[in-house]
Amino acid sequence: MTTAITSRDEMEQAFEQLERLYQSLAALRRQIEPANPRNFAVLAEGHLEHIRRLRRELDEYAGVMALDEQAAPLWLRVVGPEIEWPAAPTSVLTAILDAFRKGVQSVAELILTGELTTRPTAELKRATDFRVVAMAPGSLRVGVQLPFEEGKVAEAVSRALGDYLKTAAWVASDRPDEELHAQVPDERRRRLLLTELSRLAPRERGPQRTQPQPGPVARTVAGRGLSRGRGRRALRSGACPRLGRIAWSAPVALPAALDPSSSGAGATRTALS
User: Fold this and answer.
1) Residue 78: helix, strand or coil by DSSP?
2) CA R_g for the chain
3) Which of 29, 47, 70, 230 has the fewest other C-beta atoms within 10 Å?
4) Is the pTM of this model over 0.85?
5) Both 165 and 212 in a single domain?
6) Are 162 and 142 in the same domain?
7) Looking at the domain assignment, is residue 2 inside a domain?
8) Residues 196, 150: one domain?
9) Confidence class for position 78, pLDDT limits 50, 70, 90
10) Is residue 211 domain-resident?
11) Residues 219 and 247 in one domain
């Protein structure tokens, strides 16, 4: 993202504009709000939009936005025509977070026990209960981190998250199968990762999709985006044998694309950054 403020002079001008906007808003409040609060809210919309835009530009220029990026080790970005902070649908946000959490949880369970169950242990559920630690625009970004747990389960969850992000990066690229095999040598785990990521793959129909991007602790997922075709081919290939009852299926959660640089009209993407 490029900043609209590029110099100290422009920063000073933005402060002056903010001062005038706040003074105008305060005057409007004195005149309108006592008699008609609803009318004041309507008339103030233009002021608020301009104030928020200037504050974002100032924050970006001064480095506040860069510092905010460090507030969470992992960012989940949701992009779409109806997705905008602070007015994002809770149905979209909860579905994406739940699909992500359950995906990491399933991989951690396989690492711990060598199998999948219908009832993960309470300790595993607690260790994969990601904490939401920050929210930001663009269109909606949610900063998350793992709970501060120690022990064997927490260690497995950390490994599962790392494998999840590495596999997401591979699916979002044109890199050869051999690279994924080298990053995740275990075939059963590799198949499970592809299956869980398929739950965030773009659907052919539907108004939304999502896109994961890694941030400070994981590299950015870049490339063409998560393709259902690429994941399906990998799952059906001989290099990824079947994993019991786990197989490719149409996404049951809101769909997703793992490409932070791509854009799509009429679709919602999620990115882990």
Assistant:
1) strand
2) 22
3) 70
4) no
5) yes
6) yes
7) no
8) yes
9) confident
10) yes
11) yes
State what percent of residues in the chain have pLDDT above 70. 68
Q: Based on the domain organization, do 229 and 94 belong to the same domain?
A: yes
Q: Locate all alpha helices (DSSP H) within the chain, ordered by sequence.
A: 8-32, 37-43, 45-62, 64-69, 90-113, 122-127, 152-171, 177-183, 187-198, 228-236
- DSSP per-residue letters across 216-271: TTS----SS---HHHHHHHHHSTTS--BTTB-----SS------TT---TT--EEE
Give the pLDDT band of residue 264 (cuts 50, 70, 90): very low
Number of domains in the chain: 2
Domain that residue 214 falls in:
72-272
Q: How confident is the model at residue 270 (pLDDT cuts 50, 70, 90)?
A: low
- Whether residue 120 is contained in a domain is answered as yes
Residue 108 confidence (pLDDT) above 80? yes
Residue 202 predicted with pLDDT over 70 = no
pLDDT at 106: 94
